[in-house]
Amino acid sequence: MTAIKAYKSSTNAKALALACTMLSGLGVAHAQVAERDSADQDVAAAPAPAPSAAAPAGQQSARDIARRAAAAAAGQSRPAAEQQVVKSIRVEGSQRIEPETILSYTKLRVGEPYTNATIDQAIKDLYQSDFLSSVEIAGVETGNLVIRIQENPVINRVVLEGNKRLKDDKIVKEIKLAPRQIFTRTAVRADVARIIELYRREGRYAARIDPQMVKLDQNRVDVIFEIHEGPKSKVRQINIIGNEKFSDDDLRDEMATKQARWFRIFSSSTSFDRDRMQYDQQKLRQFYLTQGYADFRVVSAVAELTPDKQDFIITYVVEEGQRYKFGPVTVDSAIRDFDDEKLARSLPMKEGDWYNAKQVEDSIDQLSETAGFAGYAFADVQPNFVPDHENHTMAIGFNIAESQRTYVERVNINGNTQTQDEVIRREMRLAEGDPYNTFLKKRSEDRINSLGYFQDKFEIDTQKGTTDDRIVLNADVEEKPTGELSLSAGFSSLERFLVQAAVRQNNFRGMGQQAHIQLDYSSYSKSAEVGFTEPYLFDKPIALGGTIFRRDYNSFNYIGQDRNTTYSQVSTGFQIVSSIPLTEYWQLSGRYRLSQDDVSLDKGTFYRDTDGDGIADTCDPLRAGRYLCEAVGNRLTSSIGASLIYSSLNSYYRPTRGSRVVLGMDFAGVGGDVQYIRGRASADKYWGLGDGFIFSLSGEGGYIHALEDSPGPGVDAVRITDRFYLGQEFHGFDIRGVGPRVQRIPYTGTVAGGDQMLVTDNDRIVDDPLGGKAYYLGKAELEIPLGSGAQELGLRPSIYLQVGALFNIKRPLPTANFEQATDEDGNLLYNEDGSPSLLPIVTPVKDGSGRQLYVVPADAGDNGGSLTTCQVGYADSYGGACSGTSQNTVYSTTTAPFYERFVGDSASPRVSVGIGVNWNSPFGPLRIDLAKALVTQPGDDAKLITFNVGTQF
Fold this sequence. Notes:
Number of strands: 48
Strand content: 35-45%
Number of helices: 16
Low-confidence stretches: 1-81
Structural class: alpha+beta
Helix content: 10-25%
Radius of gyration: 47 Å
Largest sheet: 16 strands, antiparallel
Distance between the termini: 73 Å
């Protein structure tokens, strides 16, 4: 700061002589303002004497000085306290700031008196405006004041350098300096402190900020913050002093902060955080209070930073105190509707149990909720603790203050821009004028969450109404996208390459209607589907929906690593579904389905030419198997069904608590070609275990019974296309890898060599799943929470155990019986291992009229190699007149020997354990499962890894 002060006079001659001597040797100069390049240094300048108004500083003659000294000696000088009047004020050096603005920061006015103190105060006021870098006031002696200023520069830009862990946007929103603002060193120091605080919140206590200023033209500057982030400060050691009942490790396990160790390299809990340190003290208190130590306290908590600023050492000093038990537990309710003794018996703690503060908190919540059930929204429950320090007991009396029954005054719905109010209100179980009930409030939250239209964890807020017995419910929703327009491609271990295009809207027109169009194409399935559902028909809680579909599905088996199509099923039809609520939790659903099913086999693989025209026209059981040939044909299925549904889930899409039970029955035979009755049941139960863990149990099962007779021996009356199958939902097993199946195992070697043996290479075994008439499948799963970063990525891992089986069909008859070979004497031949040597089956081929076909020898002229019905000679047409003398051979096909076995038809449980991860990847929903089959049955196909991407899971 520069101060310009008037010269002072003195009547003391000795002082005058000394002053004259000093002035004669020194020129009077204006004070200069020191400038520094570093923006974090203070600006200061020593005050200097004011120059004479008669001559420039440094140019006053000795005669002038002597004249002033003589005048002072004669008593003509002005006393220091004498006031002068401001004659004029002029501002010099202003560029952006108007002179009037400069003057407004001072108390100097024309015509007003001033003193040295007034001048000093004016200079201080101008500096405090933060607009100026230097100030000088001249003309103090004459009253014609000149305020010479130099303005603070304008910030051109603010640059951050060296920041990697904290992005620019996170720092910029915290600092005050910005382009086009006035630069001040005070603001720079404040921003440096803010940036350091940001890094300390990230656990980087060694962070250092070096601010720099780069001068530009037109009085502008660039402000540069050079950031040295330094390493993250870890917690090297956590020391606990005073604990005797529990070890250090036990107490450290209760803390959120963890000691830095190599195996926690990816954990964020090892970084030091003062807020987390406070939280850990609360965790220690909670732990001891739940163990009965009611007098526990944390005496001190000290965090020491190591000299290198790399790590922290935290030390807690604790006093455990004595362990307490519960004394008498009573309830004293001023609400007459309640039975005090009954309420006390319902509480979780009992006299003589070890004291547990968590049970006390739960009891308060339980009593408040009970009061809420009865309509007392604002019941005040206060625990009264009576410790007995001699006997170490804690008696507790819960006092429920008198309260008025509460009624709903108003229901406010806010935040819905697309969804109509009516859609939300019809899920509310409380309306204006109803008695308030916390159970119905919670049920309303669950039903609104189950819509899937809003962000998760929606809650209804309550506030007091216009009177004490009125309450206002506020449903503040945050909508999320409910429509989906997708065109995706992916690869599945089950479907191979697949493409999916879908348009789906779960909240069509904001009225809760559901509409969808979906097309799917993969190597083994194709489908098209259009559907629409109205959940509230005619403003009544009656749902009505319909679907039109066309599905082409190819069943398959594996020969080695090759997946081969067995039969194709084309289904075309529609389904109508309707449902009505019976109670709050029970719902009845009915449906009608009509579909045309066309089942066919690959003619090139499973058919044979029966009439010699080169066209395969008959299903060959030796190639396809009897069970597949029996499935071929067109059938019309007309069925009706009903389901009874119970659901108390808190969310249909991501449940964390509640249960769901579905009992369904379908009857096919309302016209059509198929008659059966099929029943299915499923149940799910979810528990939230706290800290994000979700445990669930689920089970399902079904049975189908034919209402028509079997078509023949060894043929089940329930067609292969109507049976149950366990697919990809049973992890640890391949798709259709569980249940009844027929395996065809070929022989190696030759009859003549006597070395026939069943192949042991699974790649050469044909495996045809047949499905089952009954099944069950159970699952126990624990969903494991991850950190916030993983949750943002949509990662949801889980571990699970599954048990299931598919069984109960009629054992099919063998496809073929191979004769045992004999020698020339008629003796049966055996292989070297003692097994019988089997002959291939030779099947003569006949034409469409049942006439045997023959092959003309290749050397028989023009007709060599041709097929004919003539045993000798040749005819131009089948059954025509034969001419010629060629001796023809019977036309036939040969089937090599194989062993066919029926396996897997067992109700014995299959068991698997696994780990699964759901990921909402940029490529679409992804599900990966690593599962191991622990218990299998003969014929089961295990599979360790399965995944799906690009399709729903």
